[in-house]
Design a protein that fits this description.
This protein is mostly helical and about 180 residues long. It has one domain. Helix content is about 90%, strand content about 0%. The model has no long low-confidence stretch (mean pLDDT about 80). Keywords: ATP synthesis, CF(0), Chloroplast, Coiled coil, Hydrogen ion transport, Ion transport, Membrane, Plastid, Thylakoid, Transmembrane, Transmembrane helix, Transport. This is ATP synthase subunit b, chloroplastic. Belongs to the ATPase B chain family. It is a single-pass membrane protein.
C-alpha cells in the first residue's frame, strides 16, 4: 500500500530536464495516458459520435414512421377485408335464401313432372291392356269361327252325298248365271 501512495506523491515531483527514460511505475503513467486518450477522443470523436447518433436516431424515426404507415395500411386492409366479408356473408345469405326457394320450386316441379309422367304411364298401360284385350278377343273369335267353319264343313261333308252335292253345285251355278244376266 505504501508503494501506491508513493507513486501518487511522486506525480508532483518531475525528474530533471534532459533525462529521458521509461517510467516503469504503471499506476503513475496509466491515469495520465488515459486522460490524454479520453481528451483526444472526446475532442475529435464528439462530432463523429454525434453524427452516428443522429443517423441512428433518423433511422429509428424513419423505421417508426414506416411501421406506423404499414400499421395504418394493415388497418385499412383489415377494414376492407371485413367489409368484403360482410358483403360476402350477405350475398351468401341471399343465395342461401334464394337457393332454398329454388330448391322448393324444383321440388314442386319435379313432383308435378313425376305425377304427370305417372299419369301418362297409367294411360299407356290402360291403352295397352285394352289393345291386348281386343287382340285376344279377335283371336278367340277367329278360332271360334275357324272351328265353327270346320265343324260346318265336316257336317256338310258327312251329310252330302254325290248326288246332293251335284244338285247343290248346279243350283249355285244357276244362281250365278241369273246374277250374270242381271248385271249385263
Amino acid at each position: 500500500m505504501k508503494n501506491v501512495t508513493d507513486s501518487f506523491l511522486s506525480l508532483g515531483h518531475w525528474p530533471p530536464a534532459g533525462s529521458f527514460g521509461f517510467n516503469t511505475d504503471i499506476l503513475a503513467t496509466n491515469p495520465i495516458n488515459l486522460s490524454i486518450v479520453l481528451g483526444v477522443l472526446i475532442f475529435f470523436g464528439k462530432g463523429v459520435l454525434n453524427d452516428l447518433l443522429d443517423n441512428r436516431k433518423q433511422r429509428i424515426l424513419s423505421t417508426i414512421q414506416n411501421s406506423e404507415e404499414l400499421r395504418r395500411g394493415a388497418i385499412e386492409q383489415l377494414e376492407r377485408a371485413r367489409d368484403r366479408l360482410r358483403k360476402v356473408e350477405m350475398e351468401a345469405d341471399e343465395y342461401r335464401k334464394n337457393g332454398y326457394s329454388e330448391i322448393e320450386r324444383e321440388k314442386v316441379n319435379l313432383i308435378n313432372a313425376t305425377s304427370y309422367s305417372l299419369e301418362r304411364l297409367e294411360n299407356y298401360k290402360n291403352e295397352t291392356l285394352l289393345f291386348e284385350q281386343q287382340r285376344a278377343i279377335n283371336q278367340v273369335r277367329q278360332r271360334v269361327f275357324q272351328q265353327a267353319l270346320q265343324g260346318a264343313l265336316g257336317t256338310l261333308n258327312s251329310c252330302l252325298n254325290n248326288e246332293l252335292h251335284f244338285r247343290t253345285i248346279s243350283a249355285n251355278i244357276g244362281i250365278l248365271g241369273a246374277m250374270d244376266e242381271i248385271i249385263d
